[in-house]
Amino acid sequence: MPIDAARLRAGLVRPAGPFATLDVVASTGSTNADLREALVAGAADRTVLIAEEQTAGLGRRGRTWVSPSGAGVYCSVLFRPEGVPFAALGSLASVAGLALMDLTRELDVAAVLKWPNDVLAAAGSGKLAGILAEASSSDEPSAILGIGINVSPAREPARPGPGGLAPSSLAELGANTTDHTEISRLLLTFLHRRESAWLAAAGDLGAAGLLDEYRAHCATLGQQVRVVVASGQDLVGTAVDLDRTGALVVATADGDRRTIFAGDVVHLRPVAG
């Protein structure tokens, strides 16, 4: 069934809810790209765009996010978080990760977070959702948060991402509903709750009480990992912690600790003990 925009607006758009506007489109290139244009045009804080299909969906580092019609929920939200410094905008990806943990728990699906922007089946068998946070350095802090959720298996198999993770879906993991409207409603409800705490703490995950929760859900911690950073170099070590901004702390074999703000992470194996 198509996503019911009227039902979503009735409960989520002002004055009934926290969002400024909410639109649903049958197909678009990329919801994040559309909201980047809307940002330039002056769109309000908490503008929401949901697509039934993306023909040019975006992942991290310019990758494609496969977004076929009927298989998922593809949602972007424009935030203008007053009082949050530009350097803290990237931690919105962690906020979204926790909202997705709330969602999967509500749907009776066992899932975990993979730093920095993935949600995996708890058994490690596949990728359920991805997050793309894009900060803008315009006159005021702003960010576009994109979330793609695999609700049902796609007709055509997608190419595995970094580390060989194949896609999985809520339906395959026994979700108690696969109704796209209800999943969209729950996602936005949980995202609002998490973002409100983050905003009240001026983007500080620790002060917002979100950092320890993220650590608890993050399957990357305790893993031996290979991180491919922007320079293209590989860093191999043990993921030992997250700092207050949500950056990953990796301990290398020579005893150094490196803080990674962005990069592709491949889980190699859990560290014994």
From TrEMBL:
Q: What is its EC number?
A: 6.3.4.15
Coiled coil ranges: none
Q: Which SUPFAM superfamilies match?
A: C-terminal domain of transcriptional repressors (SSF50037), Class II aaRS and biotin synthetases (SSF55681)
**Keywords, sorted A to Z:** ATP-binding, Biotin, Ligase, Nucleotide-binding
* Residue span(s) of domain BPL/LPL catalytic: 11-198
Give the main EC class: ligase
Q: Which PROSITE patterns match?
A: BPL_LPL_CATALYTIC (PS51733)
Recorded GO cellular component terms are: cytoplasm
- Classify the source by domain of life: Bacteria
Instruction: Please name one Pfam family that this protein belongs to.
Output: BPL_C
* Sample GO molecular function, one term: ATP binding
UniProt-recorded name of the protein: biotin--[biotin carboxyl-carrier protein] ligase
Q: Which organism is it from?
A: Prauserella cavernicola
